[in-house]
Amino acid sequence: MARYSGPVCRLCRREGEKLYLKGEKCYTEKCPVDRRTYPPGQHGQGRRPRNTEYGIHLREKQKLRRIYGVLERQFERYYEEASRRKGVTGENLLVLLESRLDNVVYRLGMAPSRPAARQLVMHGHFEVNGHKVDIPSYQVKAGDTIAVRENSRNVALIKESVEAAASRGVPEWLELNPEALSGRVKSLPTREQIDVQIQEHLIVEHYSR
User: Fold this and answer.
1) What are the pLDDT digits (tens) for 163-175?
2) Is the distance from CB of 96 to CB of 76 less than 8 angstroms?
3) Which residues contact 184 (CB under 8 A, 6 or more apart)?
4) Model-level pTM greater than 0.70?
5) Cα(first)–Cα(last) distance of the chain, in Å?
6) Are 118 and 169 in a shared domain?
7) Residue 127 maps to which CATH number?
8) Does the residue 128 lie in any domain?
9) Do the domain assignments include residue 65?
10) Which structural domain range is residue 124 located in?
């Protein structure tokens, strides 16, 4: 399956803000976004942003896509599903993305970043309701239990991440049991519980043009 494999810090610099793709590095002074506040590339410092309506809509869509690590065709399918559901399309889209297994693993603190969570899921380190799931895009539901599989309980990256999450806390729609290396989806998140800085109505306008 195709996946972006280049320097992820370039993606943050392109969007002009932190997308938290490198885990703990994003919280330190080593973060390139803090040190170089201009877009990547040889013309980054001299480039003037084109604030057209289309460009603003496109940048918002690209930012959301990159936050969750979703490719273009897959993102379009999420949007189509969100538009079919009852309710506000933009909010439906965010809930679908938040409900991905790799994102839930990250939100529970079992991985330091979404890219790391995606890799851990693909390597078969997690189970949902007692069954192994190695598909990062798997949609969790309210009441689901996500746990580290028995053979993966000594993976250092997972243990260190859970220890940090236990002191930092997890979103209110999730529940973490650090001793059991498991978590539960208490309910699907509402828009107020999703902390990504996105103006989702701009994405809806992008696809509605």
Assistant:
1) 888 777 899 999 9
2) no
3) 143, 144, 145, 146, 174, 175, 177
4) yes
5) 30
6) yes
7) 3.10.290.10
8) yes
9) yes
10) 99-185
